[in-house]
């Protein structure tokens, strides 16, 4: 007998048993299981009022590797890089707010991390290289507030959002 788990949002929803000889499901009923701790949780009740005020749809909570960079120039969103901005993986849209409780700061996603880092790194902009080296690499809990409407390249709305966070 072989069992297969069905995964949804990092949780095992059900496990079904299959016959090895026929490959068909057995007559056993699916049993709910909680096999592993979820990587991502959605906080809805505690943040509904905050989401209504900020225009966000939901808040995702996840542990990320947080590093720092001090590159000057234009970000991938088409705005000049500066304090209060960060680079995030492509699965987090531009204009998303990333709140880091340990730092008690909110950052706006305006840039992309290198593709080799995939989905687990957030780069925070810092004005000086010595601050970046001092910050180092940390694994921190990040609360990601997705924007209601995706922000396009060079959007004036993104500049206004960055100014409101500072």
Describe this structure in words.
It is built from three helices and nine strands. The chain has 166 residues and is α+β, with helices and mostly antiparallel strands. It folds into two domains: 1-37; 41-165, Beta Barrel (Barwin-like endoglucanases), CATH 2.40.40. The strands form two sheets. It has a six-stranded mixed barrel. A two-stranded antiparallel ribbon has the order 1-2.
Characteristic key phrases:
166 residues, alpha+beta, six-stranded mixed β-barrel, two-stranded antiparallel ribbon, 35% strand, globular
State the distance separating the first and last CA atoms.
58 Å
Helix content: 10-25%
Task: Briefly note the structural class of the backbone.
Answer: alpha+beta
- Looking at CATH, which topology of the largest domain would you report? Barwin-like endoglucanases
**Secondary structure tally: strands:** 9
Spatial order of strands in the largest sheet: 4-8-5-7-6-9
CATH architecture verdict of the largest domain: Beta Barrel
Residue-averaged pLDDT, rounded? 73
Strand content: 25-35%
CA-atom Rg in angstroms: 20 Å
- Runs in which pLDDT lies below 50 for 5 or more consecutive residues are 1-14, 29-52
- Name of the level-1 CATH class of the largest domain: Mainly Beta
Quaternary status of these chains?
single chain
Helix and strand run: EEEHEEEEEHEH
């Amino acid at each position: 007998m072989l069992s297969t788990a069905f995964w949804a949002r990092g949780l095992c929803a059900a496990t079904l048993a299959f016959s090895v000889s026929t490959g068909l499901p057995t007559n056993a009923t699916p049993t709910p299981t909680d096999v592993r701790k979820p990587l991502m949780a959605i906080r809805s009740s505690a943040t509904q009022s905050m989401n209504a005020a900020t225009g966000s749809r939901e808040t995702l909570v996840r542990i990320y590797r947080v590093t720092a960079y001090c590159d000057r120039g234009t970000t991938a969103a088409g705005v000049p890089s500066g304090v209060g901005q960060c680079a995030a993986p492509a699965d987090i849209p531009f204009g998303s707010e990333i709140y880091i409780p340990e730092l008690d700061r909110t950052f706006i996603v305006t840039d992309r991390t290198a593709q080799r880092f995939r989905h687990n790194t957030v780069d925070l902009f810092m004005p000086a290289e010595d601050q970046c080296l001092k910050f180092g690499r940390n694994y921190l809990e990040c609360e990601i507030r997705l924007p209601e409407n995706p922000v396009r390249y060079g959007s004036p709305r993104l500049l206004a959002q960055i100014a409101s966070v500072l």
